[in-house]
Amino acid sequence: MNNHLVWARAHTNIALVKYWGKLDSQLIIPQNSSLSLTLDHFYTDTGVKFDATLSIDQLWIDGNQVPMEQKVKDCLDAVRSLAGFHQAAIVKSYNHVPNSAGLASSASAFAALATAACKAANLVLNGKQLSRIARRGSGSATRSIFGGFVEWHGGNSDLTSYAEVVADPVELDIEMITVILSRKPKKISSRDAMQSSVETSPYYPAWRNQAHLDLIEMKRAINTNDFKTIGHIAETNAMRMHALTLSADPSFTYLNADSLAVIELVRSLRMNGIDCYFTMDAGPNVKIICQQLNESIIITHLQQLFADENIVVCKPGPGVKIINDPRK
Ligand code: DP6
User: Fold this and answer.
1) Which parts of the sequence belong to the Mvd1 C-terminal domain (predicted)?
2) Ligand 1 pocket check: which of 13, 39, 113, 140 to mutate, most ligand atoms within 8 Å of Cβ?
3) Other C-beta atoms within 10 Å of 304: how many?
4) What ipTM describes this predicted complex?
């Protein structure tokens, strides 16, 4: 066993066809397959050490010890069971993403945790196997093992629910401008929200069918470098996901007035011939999907509404990597 922490860095991803709903909440098997773009700007560094002298797992986030989270334990347990030992672990994580604000902090966090923990346990796994371990912490983390456009095959069991690369975006000019409207943790976790959507929205079966069709069309668009279709499907898919929380009982929404202002801006830019689209996750922040040629004009419009530090340009990002201790 390693006597120092083993570190991994994973980047966030934003889904272009969203995951929303579980078939199995223990193993985190989704109701539908999903597809995302890994981004370069936001990431998490996580260090793990298994230690026979520890009696219980320890979790440190951004330099502070915090109570162990069940999701972290689930991910560590998956690694321990594969490695065939029961040692407790020390986990230290540094987030370069605003937490729990719909910016996919759990995606980068659990992809980094799974990768660092497997390496610390001396397990040699390929990306597909790592994605199955990351999945045990958080569904969206399955996709953050890889860079570029990534599909999470929903499957129906631990073995069949994994991620793989669909395409490397070098061929395609695509980026996302993240508009940070809130850095506060969300009031309702995506975990609870998607469960309520599955259980109470009468539109849930329609979502599942449509997400399946969206995925097929999205892959076709990616493979033919068709930016307009990628943006169009991503936008309609996101709004249909948000229609599930609006149609749940009790009903709620992650969108706030600023989110709607960004959405209106994107629509009006598009009416004026600037090709851009929006997507949103479990939080009010909006990501604008665009191409580099339109980046500066979109930013100029955003700057009239929002402060510079809340406008972040994200390009396609890499898959997870083992790194040196980032604190040194
Ligand atoms: C809206 O992966 O955070 O970002 O599996 O319960 O941890 P858990 O949920 P999580 O949900 C992500 C939802 C989403 C869509 C997506 O990333 O596909």
Assistant:
1) 177-309
2) 140
3) 7
4) 0.99
